[in-house]
Amino acid sequence: MLYKSYLSGDTLIGAAKKANINTTHSVAGKLLRNKHYIGDDYYPAIIDTELFEAVQAERLQRAQKLGRIQEPKSKKEVIYPTAFHMNEITQRYEDPFQKAEYAYNLIEIEVNPNGSE
User: Fold this and answer.
1) Of 88, 81, 89, 87, nearest to 110 (Cα)?
2) Could you tell me the CA-to-CA distances from 62 to 7, 68, 85 in Å, in that order?
3) Which of 18, 46, 64, 91 has the largest count of CB atoms under 10 Å?
4) pLDDT, tens digit, for every residue of 8-57?
5) CA separation (Å) from 49 to 57, 67, 91?
6) How far apart are CA 17 and CA 2, in angstroms?
7) Is 27 buried (19+), middle (13-18) or exposed (0-12) by CB count in 10 A?
8) What is the pTM of this model?
9) Nearest to residue 1, comparing CAs of 42, 55, 56?
């Protein structure tokens, strides 16, 4: 009933109420997107594939009409230094914090994969 009501033009909440489901907008949307309802190796089918696909097409059409389709942002590639040159260790410290600070101070050059410093 939820799927059929949504296809007939009802809102998510309106379709859920007609199906006697007391829920929120987001949960009703998740119910409509749940592929388990068309069945798989574990779950039996409770709706047919055509109805499920029609609802998905309707959801996409409504989202486009309302301007709610967001393209994923392209990720900027970050190049981390992969090599460095370090001076020879000449001092020894018992305190691990002093030892680490001294070791980091010995780093002279960080080299990127493309060879730039």
Assistant:
1) 81
2) 11, 9, 57
3) 18
4) 999 999 999 999 999 999 999 999 999 999 998 888 999 999 999 999 99
5) 12, 27, 71
6) 8
7) middle
8) 0.59
9) 55
